[in-house]
Design a protein that fits this description.
The protein has eight helices and nine strands. By secondary structure, the chain is of the alpha/beta class. Helix 1 packs antiparallel against helix 4 and helix 2 crosses helix 3. The protein is elongated and about 60 Å long.
């Protein structure tokens, strides 16, 4: 399981872009975790997996796992379980992993650079084309073969390439003004890593990645 993103629920609405069947964020989150487990089973050459094995690994109810898998049109084999490779493929097909969604990272700071270096995004259909920043010391450099461009070039490149997804990682004091730039550039989906609740038009979708909230949930009872 990719350690860097265990805490990040991969439920951002890019998985619902172009999908006929809408699936709730909680189910997408669980299916993604199932996918991690199936990847691990494949690496260990294990052919079958039972719903109760998945449930035990995630500390959730077996009936919930079976209910989630039922939406995949994947039936298991009696007394054997699910064929690991087939179940993994069903999750990828249902969540649209095979359909590439291009995106920009806005903010080439520590977090933006870390996300740009995270190659596993491509396995889930997310392709980072470029990063944008207003720091002239960073502009022109590249990270993981992705160039850092001047934020002023974003509107033109967005319209030219048809990219309408942005991953926002700027400092909090620049979050709203940067979001306004994205909206004017016809960006319709914002994955927001800033600790700011953005004000956007109704036709723009925002997924707020609450890193501190996730941390506090994890440590609340410690």
């Amino acid at each position: 399981m990719p350690a860097l993103f265990v805490c990040l629920p991969l439920t951002f609405s890019v998985y619902n872009i172009g999908m006929e069947k809408k699936i709730s964020g909680k189910i997408i989150n669980r299916l993604t975790l199932y996918h991690y487990i199936l990847d691990d089973y494949i690496s260990k050459n294990i052919e079958f997996i039972a719903s109760n094995q998945i449930a035990a690994l995630l500390n959730i109810d077996d009936s919930q796992v079976r209910k989630d898998i039922s939406i995949l049109n994947n039936s298991g084999k009696c007394r054997v379980g699910y064929i690991v490779k087939e179940l993994k493929k069903s999750i990828e097909t249902t969540l649209g992993f095979s359909k590439t969604k291009n995106a920009f990272i806005i903010g080439a700071g520590n977090l933006g650079m870390a996300l740009a270096k995270y190659d596993n995004f491509t396995n889930y259909g997310l392709n980072i084309i470029a990063l944008f920043d207003n720091d002239h010391k960073k502009i022109g450099h590249s990270v993981n073969n992705k160039i850092i461009l001047d934020i002023e070039k974003l509107p033109n490149l967005s319209r030219k390439t048809g990219v309408d997804i942005a991953i926002l990682t700027v400092p909090r004091e620049f979050a709203q003004i940067t979001a306004d730039i994205l909206i004017k550039a016809d960006i319709k989906y914002i994955w927001n890593f800033t600790p700011v609740v953005l004000s956007v038009p109704e036709d723009v979708q925002v997924w707020n990645e609450n890193l501190m909230g996730n941390f506090l949930q994890f440590t609340y009872n410690i």
